[in-house]
Here is the input.
Amino acid sequence: MVAAQGEVGRSEARMDTEKDLIDLVGRLKQAAGENLRAVVLYGSAVDHDFREHSDLNVLCLLHRLEGADLKSLRAVGWWWWRKGHPPPLLFTLVELQNSADMFSIELLDMKARHRMLEGADFLAELEVPMVQHKLQVERELRINVIRLRQSFLRWRGGRSDLAELLIASASSFGTLFRHALIALGEEAPKSVREAAERVARLVTLNAEPFQRISDLREGKSAEGELNLEALLESYLDLVTRVAEEIDQRLAS
Here is the structure.
């Protein structure tokens, strides 16, 4: 029953996604005119197995990004945010090229998983230096552990709030697990579930907490079937140990 309901939800989400994206591109073209160079969708929403919790992450490439140019896009950004989507990332091509070394995690993932909505595929030609990749992996792992602890302290006891907290956190850590393995010189995993299994083995822990949260995100289990507080405790132990282990291994 849960799986069937999840499939219906995903089908409806895909239709809503396409409508929103078509509308977004039209509004961007009207607002920016010839200044709009390209629009790209990136992240989990690109996959065919789009989930209810997948964000619509969009990057807009512009020829100019001065104050007046930003002002012309404000109404579109506000409309997009009110629909529940993250505000688009705005870059010029030169800005993106010059900052590629500082955003190696994000840009490597964009290159691997994106869909052009407008304009030429600039990501295919973008070179991403790996000089800062290891440091970024270490930093982001630590930061996300700290954020998870803070989020738990802010939690007011609602089950749905805790479920959303876990899902959002696992999405971030899934990406970081993958890049931790890349930073260690290992072959990139094919999925976040595989990445979780492999990093869990590094610290001799079970990846089950991460997999259970993934089941929740993908609609394979329901909130009521899980002890969310116990799941949070075991999940926090896992990500803390992984962050410590990766830090030590990359420093050696």
Notes: The chain has a mean pLDDT of 91.
